[in-house]
Amino acid sequence: MIELTSVIRDLREELGRALAAAEGEALRFELGPIELELSVALERSGQAGAKVRFWVVESGAEAAVSAVSTQRISLALQPALAGTAAAPFISGRAEAHER
User: Residue 12: what pLDDT?
Assistant: First the structure.
């Protein structure tokens, strides 16, 4: 299982690479809402002051976590660039060697 924060961090990094790849490209895409649908497991430890953590269940791993209750959640994320109200633009390529 993967922590939900790791999934969102990795998505942010991928979008950052796509933004960088869009610089100077004639064809770019306006980045709109991003919808994620995930299977998550909720973990709450019994210690005082403990946090609730969400774990994303990896593909094919649901049978392995049958002892833990899993739920499907949908997240709608609206990407925005810090310090601007303008919509971000991305390119279809994340790496220069893909050209």
Answer: 93
Owning domain of residue 40: 1-19+33-81
Q: Taking Cα atoms as reference points, which of 30, 32, 13, 37 lies closest to residue 79? A: 32
What does the block give as tokens for 21?
């790849």
What is residue 68's predicted lDDT score, i.e. its pLDDT?
A: 63
**Between 49 and 57, whose confidence is greater?**
57
pTM over 0.70: no
Residue 91 located in a structural domain: no
Domain count for the chain, please give it: 1
Structure tokens at 68: 């833990």
DSSP 72: E
Sequence-distant (6+) residues with CB within 8 A of 27 are 91, 92
Cα 25 from Cα 13, distance rounded (Å): 20
